[in-house]
Amino acid sequence: MQFFYIDYINGDRKERNIGFLRVERNGICVGLRGVPLQCGNKCSVYAVGDSGEKWCLGNVGIQNGYGMEKLAWGDANGFEKCVRVEIPLYGCRKGVCVLRESSAVPQTASCEQQTKQPAGGDLQKAQEDDTTKKTIYRPDSASRDLPEKLPRDKWEQLADTYPRVHIFPEAQSLLIKPKDLVILTQRYHSLISNSFVLHSYYNYRQLLLFRFEEQQLTDSRIRAANEGATVEYYLGVPGVYYEREKRIAQMFGFEGFDIGEARMREEERREIYEGCFGYYMKQVEI
């Protein structure tokens, strides 16, 4: 399994990152963010072979600029054949993720070149001039991945994208918004419209995604339900602790409450009391 960034290409210019790609032998997981409104409610995803052949892997549904989908290679040798993945957006814009260097000469052209082509003898001369400008890639190994430094796992990818905050000393945490909950596995996507989550977010303007590792879980008051787990993730929804609020949180699937005030002040006593500020917690998966 490998992770790659998806570049937002406008004509022949790279402008920003538009998502990530997780590559497996049986398919890919595509995560998109900041997709332009002009793209509509879905984006098609294409695999590109070494000689430039393309085949469609499927579509990624888009909602509020975000989307995530798992797609199969659609070809028995798709994993070995694919050198890059392309996602047409609109006009000359597309998402591009290079998996391996290609031994073929790139056939890309800018928007201006695509819309204005010379004719007759000028066309032949332009093609000859263009050939001298093309860069021929000579990879040491056709299977070597282009990026030299990639995130080791999805959490590192997310940590490069979302702000880190320090709330609990025994856990890493990222600051997110309700629309960012598409980064969770599909079974948790309903949290995007969860009334308890939205009500809390509009009161405090924050949600937190926590990562507890094995040693941290041992020390945490929110213990792992599965003792064999080495890493667990929790969605933290800010709020004030009251018995009535706790019951409402449980109705919406939040298992517990962890006090935030004492943790931020690094106090040893962390007893929950009526009216204290903290986080209603729900275990999730990414």
Task: Offer a few descriptive terms.
single chain, 286 residues, alpha+beta, Immunoglobulin-like, six-stranded antiparallel sheet, 8 helices, 34% strand, elongated
Distance between the termini: 15 Å
Main β-sheet, in a few words?
8 strands, antiparallel
Oligomer classification: single chain
* Proportion in β-strands: 25-35%
By DSSP, the count of extended strands is: 14
Q: Can you tell me the number of structural domains?
A: 2
- Radius of gyration (CA) equals 24 Å
Tell me roughly what share of residues is in helical segments: 10-25%
Low-confidence stretches: 106-110, 112-119, 130-151, 215-226
String of helices and strands: EEEEEEHEEHHHEEHEHEHEHE
User: Globular, elongated, flat, extended or rod-shaped: what is the shape?
Assistant: elongated
Spatial strand sequence of the major β-sheet: 5-4-7-8-1-2-3-6
Derived from helix and strand composition plus strand pairing, the structural class reads: alpha+beta
Separate helix tally:
8
Average pLDDT across residues?
76
